[in-house]
# Entry
Amino acid sequence: MTARTPVTGPDTAWWSTSRNRIFYDSHTPDWTDPHQRGEVPEPLFPVLSAVQPESDLQLMADAGVDSVVLFAKCQYGNSYYPTEVGRRHAALGGRDLFGEQLTAAHARGIRVIAYFSNMWDTAAAGAHPEWRMVPLASRGSTGRWPALCLLSGYRRFALDQVRELARMYPIDGLWSDILTAGPCVCPRCEAEFTRIYGRPLPADRDDEGWLDLVHFSQKVLKDYLDEQRAVLREERPEAALIPNFYATTFVDAVIGLSAEHLDDADIGSSEGYTDWHGLGFPSYASSYIQAAVNGRPTEVLVSRFVHTWDFTVRSVAQLRFEAFSVAARGSTVSVDDQPYATGAIEPEVYRRLTPVFGRIDERAPWLSGAEPVRYAALYASQNARELESLLQADENPAVGEQSAQFPQSEPRSSASDLVAALTGTYRALVESHLPVAMIDERPQSLQTLAGHRVLVLADVLALSETEVDAITRFVHDGGGLVVTGPVAVRGTDGRVLAESPLAQLLGVRFGPLGAFTFPYLRLGAQLASETGGWPLPHYGRLRALEVTADDVTVLARRTDPVLETDDDAYWHNNQPAPAFDTDDPVIVERPYGRGRVIVSAARLGNNRSRLGYGAHRDLLGLLVRRAAAEAPEVELLDGHRGTELVLARLGSTLVAHLVTGAPVVSLDLFGARQPAAIEDVASIAELRLRVPATTTSAARIVDGGERPLAIVDGVVTLTGADDWETVLLHGA
# Structure
């Protein structure tokens, strides 16, 4: 199995066309190891006794799977091949399970990605307690899995096993997991941190040097990933390295993953589980990881399970919606499956996935090589993530893992509220049917800014001189800018600045916080005519905008409530009612060069995320359109709010993907939160699209072919639409 052919690197062209992947999630305890949890009264239960590589891989092949993640080493620390470095799973009795699965997959044209757990290894932690990571007390434990320190002897152990694996097997990729267990504060790390920064490790974010700890954690991971990539390139240069970049805004930056680690990634990967972060998360995760790798292949993990991982099987409608949300944006759909304790596979999963993967394959000609149409750019910077780690307040109440907080429907008035800002803004723009992509502060990402019509800065507390220059030039040359919440009011170290470096562009300064935690926005005539004139509530104190330029127009002012709720004062059982109009501006606009700037002291995306009130979405969508000064090339005129419009260009053809989910409203009780679900495939009587005047003909993809659509007064109409429609606009 060591045959080689001369190669120069991974086949990125093929990976870019890969659409249907199975992540065969097979963490299996070995009950002969006293260190591994999961011991039961029946220790002789025949784990892994029913694995049948030939029939299992045939089932996947028949479902349309083109690539699969197979386990070489799991989080228990067990290896599923005859390793001489790591710990062989005793239940295999010397059987080369990984090798058998790989051979069966390759025989069916399925590429194989080897799964490798990095910082979670129960067996190694038990056998070598001196290698164990010591978690920062303020971060809590590392969960059910003991973690390993990457500055210990475990580092060489893990890299040697990667070398062995790549040397023994013709793997097509390495899925490098569990890079988010830190930070470690063991004596090794303490000494190295002190050597570099000249101070002791901070204990929590209030201590001096917290951002140093963020950067230290990043360096430890980056050095390790660099070594892992070098080992893989030396032994198996054609194999793609796929680090699990679960480092979206939901993950505290102190854990260590940052955008720079994706320099080592041949394929960008992120987890997009809806039961963790809501039905819109697969789309968000796809946009995030695509921006992070800047044109390289991407994948997003979705799940077959209702609660990841509970051995349920999702409805066909839910599988379709999650997969189509990812596929329409051009990412590979990687469905997380898990065998039973015996290793047996569940055939029903693949029966349900077959038509899902079939629809994706049907649309492949209009996915491969298509370039996203740029309109709104949402700024998701690494520095903002670091300041969120430094300045955030705890969620109240907390739900889920520490690394994956979901915004609660409660006010959060801390300086940074980045998770809610980005996710709420993203969903607001998607629900407004506006094309949205993400960019960040890296030079290659900033270079794409000029291709967009409008940039949205949501809770971007710090900007470098380079970023300020790029944003100012973008607006001067005709771009739009929408700011929500204070922007560039702090340095990259978190200190408060005397003046924002964007003040000259914005034409306003951010004043002090208002006295009330539940104020209201009073929209002026220009906005009220399109959104309605009633007071719009705002979770969290509002800063007054101090106007500094003559050409600033006020679009909204603040209305204060009748009282501030506390233990002694309250208004009925509700939030306090609006009562006192003030003259303090909270939303303003001004022209700048050939562009337009809109500044909102109100954190509209945060409120959309936390309060779920549609008026925040509608206002944010209106402001983005207003700043852009022109509509998107294609507009969905009267579609379902849950319909996502994804636009791409393929040669002279505009490709419009319309993905719709029909969520089932579920009972949500405190302490028993239910995930949103989709039980039925969406059926929509009619969808209307306004198309460019240059469109020469239009077609709808049906059964893999083009069915002509009439263009009447610049509008095409689809009747009897389902959950993924693809419309081609030729000559547009």
